[in-house]
Design brief:
The chain is of the alpha+beta class. The protein is built from 11 helices and 14 strands. The protein is globular.
Length: 371
């Protein structure tokens, strides 16, 4: 049995057992956390921070969580909406005038947040290094025409989500998404999560480990559809070696380059599950949380090639909401139970070859404790 550190209330022992079982099988290092009513009831970790299994995963180990970052970016938009500084039903161009080009004058803020804006790809960018130039990317997005009439269809905005929401936040506040998150969310909550990582934290990072038998050139891509084919993609391809690079850590890519651990992910997202506050700190009103689980779109997602229910910034799954990232990290919140469950891991799984149920096993274990 793998040694699991941290604390776990007895009724949630199934979460500890699930993490130990996962680490005893394929996983190298991971952390899991559960918050209920805005308070931590599970905060555990174990395994190793490196592929050689020579460096222990510690309490303050950080890992890149890829698209789990989108949950944090969406929260920033909801905070601004709750403060009356952002109208979710307004045109994006009301905040970012240049965005109205190429037929996008009717793209609403909620379209951007629900992956229905028609901008799933960054056209004309072929090198990962180009994503590190905020001005270049947002200028291109402003000039780009939508692939479909905004609001009529959904297609997962894997990278563009963060640039679109981030530029709206920047136009309103004068701060980058990473700065806004650090000052208005992570700081007040004491949460060890970073969108763009400074050098002082590099020594704590557990690099992502490519799937077994694959190398660090393993690349992110849209999932296979029912016909066994992928949606055509002509932009830059992101590989594991990119996400482990110093340049990636320093950049602002608010859809995908967040760094944290399960504790920090669960703490931040429990704000929404707990009606706007956690640990005595209030970030939103109860009403300001509701767009996170109110359906905006339901139907086939053109990129993910599967039926999806999208809320404002989050995937919606029955009575829960949240999202996960390439590699396996995820967060799920249940506003009915006021519970948030997070899982952060460094060993990736090739989902073309087998299902990755590690995170959902942690979530289901948490429900067994809840009930």
């Amino acid at each position: 049995m793998t040694d699991i550190k941290g604390f776990c209330e007895p009724r949630f022992d199934a979460v500890r057992e699930a993490l130990a079982a996962s680490l005893g099988k394929d996983d190298v290092g991971a952390s899991a956390a559960v918050y209920v009513d805005g308070e931590p009831v599970v905060d555990i970790w174990g395994g190793y921070a490196d592929a050689n299994r020579s460096v222990s995963w510690e309490r303050d180990t950080l890992t890149g969580v890829n698209s789990t970052t989108k949950n944090m970016t969406a929260l920033c938009a909801l905070i601004l909406a709750d403060r009356g500084r952002l109208d979710l039903s307004a045109p994006v161009a009301a905040y970012w005038p240049e965005f109205a080009a190429a037929g996008k004058e009717k793209v609403l803020v909620r379209h951007v947040l629900s992956h229905t804006a028609g901008l799933p790809d960054l056209s004309g960018l072929t090198a990962v290094e180009e994503f590190y130039d905020w001005e270049r990317v947002t200028t291109k997005l402003a000039a780009q025409a939508p692939e479909w009439e905004p609001g009529t269809a959904a297609g997962y905005h894997a990278l563009t989500f963060g640039f679109l929401v981030g530029e709206i936040v920047r136009r309103i506040t004068g701060r980058s998404l990473g700065e806004f998150f650090a000052e208005e969310v992570a700081g007040p909550l004491g949460a060890d999560f970073h969108i763009g990582l400074s050098a002082e934290h590099d020594h704590r990072v557990a690099p992502l480990i490519p799937p077994l038998s694959l190398t660090d050139e393993y690349a992110a891509g849209a999932p296979l559809g029912p016909d066994g084919a992928r949606r055509e993609h002509t932009g830059a391809v992101i590989q594991v070696k990119d996400t482990n690079s110093v340049a990636w850590r320093r950049a602002q890519i608010p859809a995908v380059n967040g760094f944290g651990n399960a504790r920090s992910v669960a703490r931040v997202q429990s704000v929404l599950a707990n009606r706007g506050s956690v640990g005595g700190v209030r970030l939103l009103s109860p009403q300001g949380c509701e767009p996170a689980w109110q359906e905006v779109f339901c139907g086939d997602d053109r990129v993910l090639r599967t039926p999806m229910s999208w809320a404002v910034g989050f995937g919606r799954f029955g009575g829960t909401f949240g999202w996960g990232g390439w590699g396996g990290s995820l967060v799920v919140s249940d506003p009915g139970s006021r519970m948030t469950v997070a899982y952060v891991v460094n060993q990736m799984v090739d989902r073309d070859q087998r299902d990755d149920n590690r995170g959902m096993e942690i979530v289901m274990a948490a429900y067994s404790g809840l009930h």
